[in-house]
Specification:
Blueprint (H helix, E strand, L loop, with lengths): L1 E7 L11 E7 L3 H14 L3 E4 L5 E3 L2 E7 L6 E5 L5 E6 L4 H11 L14 H6 L3 E2 L2 E2 L4 E8 L4 E5 L16 E10 L7 H14 L6 E4 L9 H7 L6 E2 L2 E3 L6 E4 L5 H19 L8 E3 L2 H5 L3
Parallel strand pairs: 2-5, 3-5, 4-17
Antiparallel strand pairs: 1-2, 6-7, 7-12, 8-9, 10-11, 10-12, 13-16, 14-15, 15-16
């Protein structure tokens, strides 16, 4: 089993910020993953499951970071009028699912073009964009429970909501099954339009962790942040983008502490101005004392 000690995590996130993981593990299959969970539990250590690291920012982490890149199988079964049944392992790049949708003229998932995520990560946060959420065409999820057993749950038995799912609380996503319908409407033009919009409206050429905050009910987080002066606002090596105020970017060797501080400022300003408490969409993973120093 591939387990390393004291691994820097900045190279494993899209924002390029990361502290040091006490343990960094790359399991080859679900049996090794189960062994890792048991090992971590025996040591009393927390576990963080890592895909593309697109919505994760790390500080130092005293536990096991588990990298899912080896979970890479994908199968497609054409069911005629019913659509395409697709089984995708958790570590598969979301881009492969988007490409399949474009090639086969499938409804929905093509709208997630440009999201740098694994399928397991996307399902775990119920990723969405342009009016679509990945859970929309989800049939079932196979997962490894924290008790070491493998389960399969149908979507209707799982509680998916806006940017939220029961994972990883229930366990680690192993495989997702989807049923996508073909559409008579040509989707390629809309697919290209979404790609253009992302280039125009989001800082896709900068190191970023994507949307920092979830949109509160009836509001756009980016608009709220812009109205309280956070667009372009910088602390240390990180800033909220001039292109989109809800995107944190790593301007110059940003640190986890910089991230915590600028998020705290943003939340305080929005709360004081609008009475709205923003909730992070980005996942912040680090030592508890790093957060305590900001209290």
């Amino acid at each position: 089993m591939d387990i390393r000690r004291k691994v820097r995590l900045d190279a494993f996130t899209t924002i390029g910020i990361g502290g040091i993981a006490e343990y960094f593990a790359v399991p080859r299959d679900q049996e090794e993953l189960a062994d890792l969970i048991k090992l971590a539990q025996d040591k009393g250590k927390p576990i963080h499951i890592l895909g593309r690291g697109a919505n994760t920012i790390f500080g130092d982490f005293e536990g096991f970071v588990v990298y899912t890149k080896n979970f890479s199988n994908m199968s497609v079964e054409d069911e005629g009028n019913k659509g395409l049944r697709v089984k995708v392992a958790a570590g598969v790049d979301l881009h492969k699912l988007v490409k399949l949708a474009v090639d086969e003229n499938l409804e929905g998932v093509y709208r997630l073009v440009g999201l740098p995520a694994t399928v397991g990560g996307a399902v775990s946060m119920n990723a969405g964009a342009f009016g679509y959420e990945i859970s929309e065409h989800l049939l079932s999820v196979k997962f490894l429970g924290w008790d070491g057993n493998v389960y399969t749950a149908m979507k209707q038995d799982l509680n998916f909501s806006y940017r939220n799912s029961p994972f990883p609380s229930l366990g680690v996503v192993l495989e997702c099954e989807f049923l996508f319908q073909r559409t008579n409407r040509p989707i390629f033009e809309e697919f290209q339009s979404i790609k253009r919009l992302r280039k125009e409206k989001q800082p896709i050429n900068m190191p970023t962790s994507g949307s920092t905050f979830k949109n509160p009910q009836g509001h756009a987080a980016g608009k709220l942040l812009e109205e309280v002066g956070m667009k372009g606002f910088r602390i240390g090596g990180v800033a909220f983008s001039e292109v989109h105020a809800n995107f944190l970017i790593n301007v110059d060797r940003g640190t986890f502490q910089d991230v915590l501080k600028i998020i705290q400022v943003a939340k305080r300003r929005v709360l004081e101005t609008f009475g709205i408490e923003l909730e992070e969409e980005v996942v912040l993973v680090g030592k508890r004392d790093a957060f305590a120093r900001l209290d």
